[in-house]
Design brief:
This is Non-specific lipid-transfer protein. The protein is mostly helical. It has 6 helices and no strands. It has one domain: Orthogonal Bundle (Hydrophobic Seed Protein). It has helices spanning about 1-30, 35-40, 45-50, 55-70, 75-90, 95-105. About 20% of the residues are buried.
Length: about 120
């Protein structure tokens, strides 16, 4: 009896370890590193702060990269949260920030705004 209990406990621990590993892989694939995202968008600062009339090609490359990289709902939500947080930390012209995706020829599934509910993004 003791031998089968030990075998069952070993099997249970192995199953838990595999479950944890799979959860970690899934979570890692949905991670968005906000500092990396903001580095990509740093060429956009002049535009979103109202100092430039049009976004630069480097800025638009960063915006396009952001949209392409966020291909799951979790990644889009994390990207939204990052942008929302950044908006609150820099002196941003809201209309410029909201115009940025269209000015760069890309579409975001949300409006850049300090009031956007990022959890609703699919």
């Amino acid at each position: 009896m003791k031998k089968s209990s030990t075998a069952f406990a070993g099997l249970l621990l192995s199953m838990l370890a595999v479950q944890q590993l799979l959860a970690a892989v899934r979570a890692e694939s949905a991670d968005v590193v906000c500092s990396d995202l903001l580095d990509e968008l740093s060429p956009c600062l002049g535009f979103v702060q109202g100092d430039e009339d049009v976004p630069s090609s480097e800025c638009c490359a960063g915006v396009s990269s952001l949209v392409t990289a966020a291909d799951t709902a979790a990644e889009r939500q994390a990207t939204c949260e990052c942008l929302k947080s950044a908006y609150g930390q820099i002196n941003t012209d809201l209309s410029a920030a909201q115009a940025l995706p269209a000015d760069c020829g890309v579409t975001l599934p949300y409006t850049i705004s300090p009031d956007v509910d990022c959890s609703t993004i699919e």
